[in-house]
Write a structure and sequence with these properties.
The complex is a heterodimer of chains A (155) and B (213). Chain A is mainly α and 155 residues long. Helices cover 70% and strands 0% of the residues of chain A. The chains are: A mainly alpha (155), B mainly alpha (213). The structure holds protoporphyrin IX containing FE.
């Protein structure tokens, strides 16, 4: 009996210790994609700063950020959107609307439009401030087009 | 309807100049501001803010004018009693002009609703931002992300309600013009409106039952 109790306690303790590592795959996917967008933001932000004149234009930096953005646009992120990780199913955590899972072609279309705009930005980002400015707006607007349709305003 | 000629009417200047200027400025700013919000772009988002401030200022002015303006513009005239409203609703379907010396009761309520909606819209706008366009209201840094999300949701729903109210407003004008054969646009331009002589300026001072009832 004593051994049984001991064994039970050990198993319970081990489970308790292991559980943080065995985190929810849905939560992981959400963390991953939110991180992905934060990385996008951190590369796009400085470019916008230059376009708006808040930061001085630097051709080399602009090109690096834009190229990184382009690389990010080519990453496969399909695994970051498991079914059941929408904002209706996971109350209060993500902002991804269920509509995403009902309309994958639509999401892809917005994603491709965004990638195309990023590609155009990357091809001119190092060619001077005016060239950069001429392509920044389309990128921001393509982010917004996806958010307006597939992302909830509130958590 | 046969008693139509019974109600004596006269031409009266119901809308004072500030109210008329306010009205057409607001109409312009809401149309342009709404468009600039709905189709906001990288280069035009700041213009959306600008029109939003203008609307906020106009609404503030209108509330002030509601205390000092001409009788038909007073808030006291817009705050109609349920009895006045019910009396008016009973006869609203009759195909003859209301000859109301100001906003008819239902219209009064819609004015108040629209002003309230626009006030909420301009206020929530101050606190929200568009993270793709890297632009936001001047107070967007002062609230946490969750609150900001809620306010953005209110700003979005508000923009739909404003659109609905504007549509209703235009439909009502068409209804008065076509069905009741009463022109409401002319008076908002010239200030002069054909009104019942027994009608006091403030709508809630009037008895809405007339000889026809
Ligand atoms: C009072 C009149 C206003 C009207 C009628 C109006 C209307 C709109 C509309 C239709 C949208 C698009 C909603 C959407 O699709 O998400 C919008 C978005 C927005 N408005 Fe306004 N707005 C007003 C005032 C303001 C003001 C005063 C500000 C800030 C100073 C502001 C800041 C914004 C921002 C930042 C967005 C983008 C929100 C987002 O990305 O979720 N608005 N507005």
């Amino acid at each position: 009996m004593k051994t049984l109790v001991k064994a039970t306690l050990i198993v319970a303790a081990a489970t308790a210790m292991a559980s943080p590592a065995l985190s929810d795959p849905l939560e992981d996917a959400i963390t991953a994609r939110r991180g992905y967008y934060q990385v996008i933001l951190s590369n796009f932000g400085p470019i916008v700063g230059m376009a708006k004149g808040a930061v001085e234009y630097d051709a080399e930096k602009a090109a690096t950020f834009a190229n990184t953005l382009q690389t990010l646009s080519m990453l496969n992120n399909g695994h970051m959107w498991p079914a059941g990780s929408d904002n209706a199913a996971m109350d209060g955590k993500p902002r991804a609307l269920p509509k995403i899972w009902e309309d994958f072609p639509g999401v892809q279309e917005k994603g491709q439009a965004w990638a195309a705009a990023v590609g155009e930005l990357a091809s001119v980002a190092g060619d001077g401030l005016d060239a950069l400015r001429s392509k920044v707006g389309a990128v921001g607007e393509s982010c917004g087009a996806c958010h307006d349709t597939y992302r909830a305003k509130s958590f | 309807m046969s008693e139509e000629g019974v109600t004596p009417t006269e031409l009266r200047r119901v809308w004072d100049l500030p109210t008329r200027l306010f009205h057409w400025s607001l109409a312009t700013c809401v149309a342009v501001g709404w468009y600039l919000g709905e189709y906001r772009g990288f280069d035009t988002i700041e213009l959306h803010f600008f029109f939003g401030y203008a609307i906020g200022g106009l609404v503030a002015f209108r509330i002030l004018w509601g205390f000092v303006g001409a009788p038909a513009s007073r808030l006291s005239a817009l705050l109609v009693s349920p009895a006045t409203l019910l009396n008016y609703l009973r006869e609203i379907g009759k195909p003859r002009p209301s000859y109301w010396a100001g906003h008819a009761p239902l219209g009064s309520l819609s004015v108040l609703a629209l002003l309230a909606l626009l006030a909420v819209q301009a206020t929530t706008g101050l606190f929200i931002e568009d993270d793709a366009l890297f632009a936001g209201g001047p107070l967007s840094g002062s609230v946490d992300a969750k609150t900001q999300g809620t306010l953005a949701q209110i700003h979005f729903i508000g923009s739909r309600l404003i659109l609905a109210m504007v549509a209703l407003h235009l439909l009502a004008i068409a209804f008065y013009s076509i069905w009741k054969e009463e022109d409401l646009i002319g008076p908002m331009i010239s200030g002069w409106k054909k009104v019942r002589t027994d009608h006091k300026a403030a709508s809630n001072e009037a008895t809405s039952t007339d000889a026809a009832d």
